[in-house]
Amino acid sequence: MSSNKFLIEEIIDRALVEDLGRGDVTTEALIPGDQRGAGFIVAKEEGILAGIEAAKQVFHRVDRELKVEVLLTDGTRVKSGSRVARVSGSIASILKAERVALNFLQRLSGIASETNHYVEAVKGLPVRIMDTRKTTPGLRSLEKHAVKAGGGENHRINLGDGILIKDNHLAVLRSQGLNIKEIIAKAKQSAPQQLMVEVEVGTVSEALEAVEAGADIVMLDNMNIEDMRKAVKSIGGRALIEASGGITLDNVRAVAETGVDLISIGALTHSARALDISLELEAETTSQKPS
Fold it and tell me: Is residue 288 part of a domain?
C-alpha cells in the first residue's frame, strides 16, 4: 500500500468528505471538545484482516493527535473478540472517524476473507487464485491489496498491465475478416514486447487455435470441467491456462484439479460480504464538582 500512498490518501479524503458533510452535528452538540478516551477496534467474527493501515490513516486525517496502536496486521486470521487496534485521544475526533475507518476495515477484510476461502479450497494443488477488474470504482488499489492479504494474487491492475483479447475484441476483428492467428500476430506486433498476450476462448478447438497462434495465456471462459480437462491435455504446457467464469466455492477445487494454472474469480471483489468489525469506545471519567 505504501507505493500508492497519495492515491490512498485521496480515497480516504473523498470518503471523509462524503461522510462528514457539514460536520458531525450530533457529536458537536453533545461531546465536549476536550473529552478524552480510548477504544479498541474489535473483530466480531472469524476472518482475515485487511485495511488496518487505511483505517489508521482515516483517524490521522481527522485528527493528527489521535494515537492509533495497530495490534494485528493485514493477513492475520482473526476470531470473534480479536482486538485489532487501540485508538485514543479526543472522543469527538474518534467518533468523527469511526464509520469511515470501519467501512474500510469491514469491506477489505471481507474481500480478504472471501479470497482465503478459495485459497484454502484449492490447498495442495499447483494453482493460483486471481482477482479481476470487477472492483468497486475508485477502490481498486485497496481491494486488490485485500486479495493479496487473503492469499490470492492480482490479475491486471488496469488495462495497461497486459493484453487480454476478449470476446468483444474478437467479434470486432473477425468482422474485419481476421482470424485468431492474425489477431494475435497483430497484438504482438503493436504492443510493448514485455507484455504477455492472453486470449479468451469458449471451446477446446479455440483454445488450441490460440496456442498454435502464439498466445502466452489462454483463458477458458465458462467452460465445463470435462472440456477444461481436454483443453489442458491438448495444450500440454505450451501456454499458461486460466479458468474464468462461473467459479464458486463448490466447484473451485474441481476446476483446479483439471490442471489449469490460474483461476480468476470476480466474486472476490464484487460480491464479498463485509466482515463484522466494531469500535468499543470508553470515555475517561471526569470528577463532578459539588453543587
Answer: no
Q: Which residues contact 144 (CB under 8 A, 6 or more apart)?
A: 131, 135, 154, 157, 269
Residues 221, 230, 242, 261: which is the catalytic one?
A: 221
Summarised one tens digit per residue, pLDDT across range 264-276 is 999 999 999 999 9
Catalytic residue chosen out of the listed positions 36, 44, 77, 99? 99
Asked if residue 76 and residue 144 are part of one domain, the reply reads no
Where residue 97 falls (left for φ over 0; alpha for ψ -120 to 50; beta otherwise) is: alpha
What are 238's three cell numbers?
A: 505450451
**Long-range Cβ contacts of 136-141 (<8 Å, 24+ apart):** 136/107, 136/269, 136/270, 138/11, 138/14, 139/11, 139/107, 141/1, 141/4, 141/7, 141/8, 141/11
Same domain, 173 and 68: no
Instruction: Give the per-residue pLDDT at 290.
Output: 46
Regarding whether 170 and 89 lie in a shared domain, the answer is no
* 200 counts as catalytic: yes
Length of the chain equals 291
Residue 84: give the domain boundaries. 2-113+273-283
Residue 1's pLDDT band, with cuts at 50, 70 and 90, is low
Q: Are residues 31 and 106 in the same domain?
A: yes
Q: Are residues 77 and 131 in the same domain?
A: no
Confidence bin at 291 (pLDDT 50/70/90): very low
| DSSP 3-state of 240 | strand
For residue range 151-204, list pLDDT tens digits in order.
Answer: 999 999 999 999 999 999 999 999 999 999 999 999 988 888 788 999 999 999
Co-location of 60 and 146 in the same domain: no
- Give me the catalytic one of 5, 14, 67, 166: 166
* pTM: predicted TM-score of the whole model, two decimal places: 0.94
107 and 86 in one domain?
yes
For the chain, what is the mean pLDDT?
Answer: 94
Residue 221 known to be catalytic: yes
